[in-house]
Amino acid sequence: MKKLISIFLAITMIFGVCLALGSCSKDDATVRIGVLNGTTGVGIAKLYDEIANQADDENKRNYEISVYTDVTVITGKLNSGELDIAALPTGDAAKYYNSDAQTTSPISMIAINTLSVLYVVTTDESVKSLSDLSGRTVNLPTPEGQGPDVIFRALLKMKGITNVTVENNTSPQTLLGKVKTGKADIAVMPEPLVTNATAALAKEQKTLYNIVDVGAEWGNENPIAQGCLVARNAFIDEHEGLLEDFLEDYKASVEYMAKTENLDSAAKLVAAMTDLGMAEGVAKKALPKCNIVCITGEEMKNKITPFYTAILDINENSIGGKLPDEGFYYS
After folding, report:
1. Rounded Cα distance, 157 and 152, in Å
2. pLDDT grade, residue 25 (50/70/90)?
3. Alpha-carbon 101 to chain mean position
4. What is the β-pairing status of strands 137-140 and 165-168?
């Protein structure tokens, strides 16, 4: 009888621990992840391949990864609850947080995933440095107030260069067309657009000189943070274990994609993820300059706050009018 009582008490204690932890069963909810085509989606390519080829067993990871071409589609799906985790430009993430959308479907930043991918390029071989831009017209790949625009203007202010004429374009593809036709001899471009433009001009026996690494000019102490991952707070509250698992998986994917010795296979993975819109040859040349990272926690907050401060000073609308408060950062 005493033995039966002991067994009953043991089972009761185990059941109590399970309740305290929330559940003793695996959380098998599907994690819906949205990324943008181009650089902000590159870091997930290894994980995307693993998910596509994983065994259908008890260790299966239920990730549903989708690629989008329009950031407003991603923010709309976050707001409607159709996505749980998303890759966004850091400015758009802050805009969301500072908008009414944060009331209806709040989000938190969970990682910085891309540092600077911007470069100043030119077809004019006399232009060799940032200071040579004085008195010249520089074409940018986005409208005024968007990421590349405020970053470049902030860099000019930081370096004390004031007499540069900035010409904004509606999209990176519009800028690419102007560079190819000789209508823009100096431009700020992101990867992989730089690689595409260089190859296109080379076919016409023309050289596109990559003269300034914007991130290097800015400095590494408080770096440019162009891309991030966010998650809906409702998802974090209900599935924090899944979120932590995803961050571990994403970090492993980024580390694989960023290693020089994996460049050939990483380029193949990017090309295989066809919605990213990068051919294998382009990916192989662009990947070393894509600055993909996975920075989380206190380090994430400490690195991005000076960046937000710098671009807020240039255009307050770039991050929704004010610095995000402490509640924005998942720790």
Report:
1. 9
2. low
3. 20
4. parallel
Rounded Cα distance, 93 and 95, in Å: 5
Place of tokens 């509640």: 327
Residues ≥6 apart with Cβ < 8 Å to 116: 151, 213, 214, 215, 216, 218, 223, 224, 226, 291
pLDDT in tens, 39-82: 999 999 999 999 999 988 878 899 999 999 999 999 999 999 99
- In sequence order, the 6+-apart residues with CB closer than 8 A to the CB of 114 are 39, 40, 43, 225, 226, 227, 228, 290, 291, 292, 293
Report domain 118-218's class: alpha beta
Instruction: Using only the alpha carbons of the chain, give its radius of gyration.
Output: 23
Partners of 213 in the beta sheet?
A: 119
**Mean of the pLDDT values across residues 13-26?**
47
User: Is residue 314 predicted with pLDDT exceeding 90?
Assistant: yes
Q: What is the pLDDT of residue 254?
A: 98
pLDDT of residue 2: 43
Report which of 266, 273, 306, 308 is spatially closest to residue 290, judged by C-alpha positions.
Answer: 266
State the pLDDT at residue 26. Answer: 78
State whether CATH 3.40.190.10 applies to domain 31-114+223-317. yes
Q: Where in the chain is the domain with CATH 3.40.190.10?
A: 31-114+223-317, 118-218
Q: Residue 322 phi/psi, 5° resolution?
A: -160, 165
- 173: tokens are 């593809």
pTM, entire model: 0.90
